[in-house]
Amino acid sequence: MSGTPLVHQAASLLLRHPDADWPHRLHAVTTALAAAPGRRAEPLLRFCAAVTDVPVLDLSARYVATFDRSRRRTLHLTYYTDGDTRRRGQSLLRWQDLYRAHGWQPPADELPDFLPLALEFAARCPAPGRTALREHRAAVELLRLALRDHRSPYADVLEAVCRTLPGASPTDRAAALRLARTGPPTETVGLLPFPRRTAAHPHEEETVS
Fold first, then answer.
1. How far apart are CA 14 and CA 165, in angstroms?
2. Rounded Cα gap, residues 198 and 196, in angstroms
3. C-alpha closest to that of 140 among 6, 7, 3
4. pLDDT of residue 174
5. What is the C-alpha separation between 63 and 166, in angstroms, rounded?
6. pLDDT tens-digit profile of 2-24?
7. Which among 123, 121, 161, 124 is positioned nearest to 139, based on CA atoms?
8. Where are the alpha helices (DSSP H) in the chain?
9. In this structure, what are the phi and psi dihedrals at residue 194, rounded to the nearest 5 degrees?
């Protein structure tokens, strides 16, 4: 595996919760990326270097605080466009149908819009996977910007993912929100269109106790 699929697979592994297998996972990713040509792997290697000496338990706590306790930094893509609304169920079904249409069955214990799953799918099935990521470009960019504002090393992982998508990234959250409202600038007919954001969309910082 090389090029964009390698970036997507590596990002998928790095964005999963660091558990007992984390040291082996990190070593495998670092080794694969070190042999990759070009500059696409640089943000991922920066992340690997930043966390290599962090104890697993500490990194696990940091992961939970980063992704599980803030709505602005959730790893569930449809939340950025649908929030906790009824239409999110239909968006999740579209993700599930996309996976099944290409013979891929993700784990049953995770929602299908979980970014690490979407990235793994993109690595295994590049054409439909990249299309799905492009159609959720706004969600990915909003997460990247939120992680940057949070000063999280995980921002580098999202930076690497965004570099695999066509066109320039939004420079700030306002621009990313405009993208969420209008959809990608190209390929406007696709599998997972962006619904228009409503005023009730929950996008404020929330701490989960």
1. 19
2. 6
3. 7
4. 65
5. 28
6. 689 999 999 999 999 999 999 99
7. 161
8. 3-14, 22-34, 42-51, 56-63, 79-82, 87-101, 115-124, 126-135, 137-149, 154-163, 173-182
9. -75, 125
